[in-house]
Every structure is written in C-alpha cells, then in structure tokens.
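Sequence, please.
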C-alpha cells in the first residue's frame, strides 16, 4: 500500500493512487485505505473533492459490463470525521475482503455451472460421425470431471457458509474456498469451451463470457498465488512473502 494520509491539524491530506477499482468513477463516495502515522486507516472521500480524480480503465476483455477505474489523490483534504472509527490496521480492510471472497467462492461455482450446463446441452445436440459428441467417452469424461469439481466446490462453500454462521471460519478457510473455486471454475469454463468447438468462442453461447470473466475472478480478491502462499504459511508456519 503506497497511498498515504498525513494528519494536518484536524484534517487528513491524502496522496497516492488506486488501480482497478470497481465502480470507482461512478461512486459518489469511495472508501480509501491509506497509511497514516497510526497505521492503516480507512477514509471516506466524496466525489468532487478537490484533488480527487478518476478515470475509466478501457480495453478490458473481462468483466466488460462493470466499470473499472483508476483513482488519483493529489493533496486531497478530508476532515477527521471522514476517517472510519474503530477500523484500525490491516485487519479492517482484510475483514471486508473475507466477506467478499466468501461470496466470490459461490459466484465462481455459478459461472462453472452455467458453463457445464451449456456444454452438456451442446454435447447432446451436436452430431459428429453420426452420433452426438456426448456419446463419445472423451466428452463424457470431460462432463463428469466438471460435475465432480462443481460438486466439490459447492460443498466447500456450503461448509464455509455454515462455519461463518457459527462464527467459526477464518481467513484460512476463505482462502481455500476462493482459491479452489475460482481456479476450478476457470478450468471448467475452458473445458466447456472445448466441447463447444468453434462455437465456444462465440458470444452466442455463454461460455467464453464466463471464461473471460473468470480470468478476473482468478486474479481479484487475492490472486490464486497469494491464497496459495497464505495456506502454505498456515501449513508450514513459514512465511514466504512480505
Ligand atoms: C476487473 C477487476 C476489478 C477489480 N476491482 C477491484 C476493486 O474494486 N478494489 C480493489 O482494491 N482491487 C480491485 N481489483 C484489483 C485486484 O485485486 C488486483 O489486480 C490483484 O490483487 C492483483 O494485483 P496486481 O494486478 O497488482 O498484480 P500483481 O500483484 O502485480 O501480481 C502479478 C502476478 O504476480 C503474482 N505475485 C505477486 N506477488 C507474488 C509473490 N510474492 N509470490 C508469487 N507470486 C506473486 C500474482 O499472484 C500475479 O500472478 C480488480 C481487478 C480486476 C481485474
């Protein structure tokens, strides 16, 4: 985190920038996490505040229906009352992320199910060498593997949800579910795309759209690599990243 907020009298002066912020240029209020002398704190920054500018990130081939923005803060002054109370240190933003990542673990399953269903329908209808491609063992293996991974991912998220209801889950289980479900959903989308052949790259079918969106899901809310490192640290007790 490079964005800083410096305390000047009863105000804070924010300097820095944030990349890849969903809805950043349409939001009336942004929650901005910044380093201060007292550690990491969250600030509410209203649209139109002097020195606060946004621009849309163009040319995306993933998550095209949602706006993604760059936010810039050049000597942005906010009153102390805009600082989130009690949200102190890195724990505060990370707690928000746990909530989002749990939801994303389900979202990835939904995308995988849509791809599986599209591939199954297509395989039953598409005739090659006089038989539907669903009749061939290689296609059946692909479909079975998809169903298998979808079922495992559903169970992982269901168990995580129940643990959360009981107040028993931590970032560890959230990392496991987000890492597994985003990664398996992406593999399922690619496999489904192959079953659709050339039609798999067409927006006439939902698969390539899900596949491209899942590339973002694989990266945002903690990349697959970082969740792997978090779990590696939990297992070994050795931290391999800063
Ligand atoms: C569509 C979209 C919407 C987004 N919305 C938001 C949002 O609303 N708010 C927000 O805060 N962010 C948002 N993001 C940003 C997203 O969270 C980041 O892109 C993500 O955290 C990765 O950061 P980065 O792009 O800087 O990649 P980097 O951190 O530069 O990583 C590049 C690659 O290096 C790997 N890597 C990095 N460090 C290590 C290491 N120590 N060991 C091994 N591998 C490593 C990463 O896993 C990745 O594969 C969004 C991104 C996208 C694509």
């Amino acid at each position: 985190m490079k964005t800083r907020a410096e305390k000047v009298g009863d105000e804070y002066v924010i300097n820095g920038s944030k990349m890849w912020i969903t809805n950043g240029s349409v939001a009336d209020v942004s929650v901005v996490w910044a380093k201060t002398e007292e550690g990491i704190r969250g600030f509410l920054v209203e649209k139109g505040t002097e020195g606060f500018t946004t621009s849309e990130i163009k040319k995306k081939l993933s998550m095209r229906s949602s706006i993604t923005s760059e936010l810039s803060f050049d000597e942005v002054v906010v009153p102390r009352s805009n600082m989130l109370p009690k949200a102190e240190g890195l724990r505060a933003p990370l707690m928000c992320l746990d909530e989002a990542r749990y939801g994303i673990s389900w979202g990835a399953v939904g995308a995988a199910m849509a791809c599986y269903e599209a591939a199954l329908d297509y395989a039953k209808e598409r005739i090659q060498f006089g038989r539907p491609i669903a009749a061939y063992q290689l296609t059946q293996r692909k479909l079975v593997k998809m169903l298998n991974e979808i079922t495992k991912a559903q169970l992982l998220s269901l168990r995580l949800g129940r643990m959360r209801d009981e107040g028993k889950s931590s970032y560890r289980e959230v990392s496991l579910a987000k890492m597994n479900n985003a990664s398996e959903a992406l593999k399922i989308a690619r496999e489904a795309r192959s079953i659709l052949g050339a039609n798999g790259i067409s927006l006439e079918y939902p698969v390539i759209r899900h596949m491209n969106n899942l590339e973002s899901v694989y990266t945002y809310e903690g990349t697959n690599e970082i969740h792997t490192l978090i779990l590696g640290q939990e297992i070994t007790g050795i931290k391999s990243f800063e």
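The helical segments are 91-125, 137-165, 171-195, 207-219, 224-236.
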